[in-house]
Every structure is written in C-alpha cells, then in structure tokens.
C-alpha cells in the first residue's frame, strides 16, 4: 500500500527532488560558500602560522565569532592586564587559510577564532570562541565572577550563545540572505527561532543590566557581536524580523557598543567596510590607536554590523 503520509516529491524544492539512498558530494550545489565547504576535515596545504612577539597569538577574522575574542583582549588591556597584549593574524576564511596545516594543528575544526598561548612551553592551543573566552577570563581573573551562583549564570548564558547562534547564522542568515534561492519553509523555521531567541534575551535584559546580571562579563562579549548585529541590520533582516520590538536588547546594545574596548576589538582582523577603518592585523596597541583616532576625527563609531 502506498504511504499516503510521505511528502509528494513534486512539492519538494527543487520540485521532484528525492534524496538519494547515499549522499554524495555535489561541489556545484554549495551556494556562496561552495569553495570552502567540504564534507571532510583536515589540512589541504602545508602552511606554517606566523608567530609574533607577544605570548598570545590570535589567528582570526573580524566576524562575530572572531570579535568576541578581540573585544575580550581589548577589555583586558583596558583593565590594566598588560600580559593580555597580543598579535592578531588575519585568517582569510574565504580564501581557505583555515585549511593550512599550521592552523589545523591549533584547530582541527578549521574555524576561526583560534589562539595559542606561548607563555608556557609547549604553547597551549585554544579553539572555540567560548573556550578562548573562559581561558582568558580564568588566566587574568577578569570578567567572570568567582561566586558560584554568579559564575554559573555567566556559563549558562555563554553556552546559550554557543548553542543558539548557529540557528541564527547557519540557519536564518544562510537561508534568508545567502542561499542561492529562497525557501519559504526554511526561512519561516529559522526566522521563528531567531525571534524566539531575541525574545529570550529581551526578557532577560528587562530584569538585568547585563546578560548574566549586574556585571559586564564574557557572556556579554559573546552575545553582543551576534545579537547586536541582528538589531543593527545583519543579513539585511532588521525590518523582516521587526527587531525594534526588542527594546531591552536595544538598550543593552547601546551600552555595550559605547565601550571603547568594544569599539577597538570590533575593528581588528576586519576585511570589509571602509579600508581606512580596518585593522587587518594587530601587533601593537598603536595599530588600533591610529584607526580609532581617524574614526574619532571623522565622528564615526563602528556600526554594529
Ligand atoms: N563554534 C565556533 C564557530 C566558529 C565559526 O563558525 N567560525 C567561522 C567564521 S564566523 C569560520 O571560521 N568559518 C570557516 C569555515 O567554515 O570554513 C566558535 O564559536 O568558535
């Protein structure tokens, strides 16, 4: 008897598509990121990573996941932690730098940000932005409370971000903005989830000045680049998602983005926007000072996107 509950392939997108028994890699179907997406991991070329003069070596790009770490490093420096000085090397993910052997040795998952702490021998390797933020917070005893309840709340929200943002970027952003054609089902599914997450954040920020309570912590640094960007037009979706509804998130975005360390961290390893407002690589505070001075003279503060 025919399975009447099975979807009619005519309704599939593209019409008539039936998943084969075994998936095989069709290189042409990957859309905008076809040149970097692969179904296997590992290095594709032999390439050592450069190592600069500081103990902390960051290999990254100025995406939301990347700037979480540069914001933290700039916050640490602003708070007087001199040993947080760092070299930030640019990893151009669109050009496949994340598949070089040196990068893969630090991050077998081939994604930015990745970091190495050379203050110990052999250096400690770090990948996953959440792991890097916790490592730095513990190393410097900053932006992470020690009291159990407050510390647990920071971890709750940090892990919330790490688990939630892929639905925003890889789900909503991908299907609304990047996919080669619009799929109503996918856009509806991920728009709903993105708005649900914004509402979770809005309700939390209605009760607290910062995400995990009264204190500004690594939870804010992780969440701001993603949800701040959503409120300020990421994926050209501000109107579509009616982001003006999230008044408490908006208030928090203004507070966080006004911090000088946040403004500094957000321009490191940038590869888009006006060239004179980018710091492609950072090896010294002066690399950022120069660009910030220019931006201040022009009355420009980096918009959230
Ligand atoms: N969960 C990871 C996600 C990192 C991630 O997705 N990085 C992206 C840029 S934002 C990347 O490197 N993509 C390159 C690729 O997928 O090949 C983290 O938070 O560090």
CATH topology call of the largest domain: Glutathione S-transferase Yfyf (Class Pi), Chain A, domain 2
CATH arch. level architecture of the largest domain: Up-down Bundle
Q: Which sequence of strands runs across the widest sheet?
A: 2-1-3-4
Average pLDDT? 95
Strand content: 5-15%
Q: What is the end-to-end distance?
A: 54 Å
Overall 3D shape? globular
Order of helices and strands: EHEHEEHHHHHHH
Strand segment tally = 4
Oligomer: single chain
**How many domains?**
2
* Relative helix content: 40-55%
Main sheet properties: 4 strands, mixed
Number of helices: 9
Gyration radius, in Å? 21 Å
Low-confidence stretches: none
Describe the structure.
The protein has 305 residues and is mainly alpha-helical. Helix content is 44%, strand content 6%. It has 9 helices and 4 strands. The protein has a 4-stranded mixed beta sheet, covered by helices on one side. Helix 1 (64-78) links the parallel strand 1 and strand 2. Helix 1 (64-78) crosses helix 6, helix 4 (148-178) runs antiparallel to helix 5 (184-207) and helix 4 (148-178) runs parallel beside helix 6 (218-231). The protein starts with 55 loop residues before the first strand and ends in a 7-residue tail after the last helix. The mean pLDDT is 95. The structure holds glutathione (GSH). Residues 36, 63, 65, 93, 98, 110-113, 128-129 line the site of glutathione. Glutathione (GSH) is lined by residues 36, 63, 65, 93, 98, 110-113, 128-129.
């Amino acid at each position: 008897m025919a399975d009447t509950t099975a979807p009619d392939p005519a309704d599939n997108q593209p019409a008539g598509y039936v998943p084969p028994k075994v998936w095989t890699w069709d290189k042409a179907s990957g859309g905008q990121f076809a040149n970097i997406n692969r179904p296997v991991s590992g290095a594709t070329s032999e390439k050592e990573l450069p190592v600069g003069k500081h103990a902390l070596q960051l290999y990254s790009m100025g995406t939301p996941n990347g700037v979480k770490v540069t914001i933290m490093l700039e916050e640490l420096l602003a708070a007087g932690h001199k040993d947080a000085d760092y070299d930030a090397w640019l990893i151009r993910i669109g050009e496949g730098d994340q598949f070089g052997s040196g990068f893969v040795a630090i991050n077998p998952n081939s994604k930015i940000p990745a970091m190495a702490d050379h203050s110990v021998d052999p250096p400690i390797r770090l990948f996953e932005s959440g792991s890097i933020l916790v490592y730095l917070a513990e190393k410097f005893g900053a932006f992470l409370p020690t009291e159990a309840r407050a510390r647990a709340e920071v971890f709750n929200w940090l892990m919330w971000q790490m688990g939630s943002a892929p639905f925003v970027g890889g789900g909503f952003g991908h299907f609304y903005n990047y996919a080669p054609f619009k799929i109503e089902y996918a856009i509806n599914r991920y728009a709903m989830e993105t708005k649900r997450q914004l509402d979770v954040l809005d309700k939390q920020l209605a009760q607290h000045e910062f995400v995990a309570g009264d204190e500004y912590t690594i939870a804010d640094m992780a969440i701001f680049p993603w949800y701040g960007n959503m409120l300020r037009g990421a994926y050209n979706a501000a109107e579509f998602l009616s982001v003006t509804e999230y008044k408490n998130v908006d208030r928090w975005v203004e507070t966080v983005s006004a911090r000088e360390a946040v403004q500094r961290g957000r321009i490191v390893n940038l590869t888009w926007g006006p060239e004179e407002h980018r710091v492609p690589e950072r090896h010294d505070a002066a690399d950022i000072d120069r660009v910030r001075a220019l931006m201040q003279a022009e009355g420009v503060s980096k918009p959230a996107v």
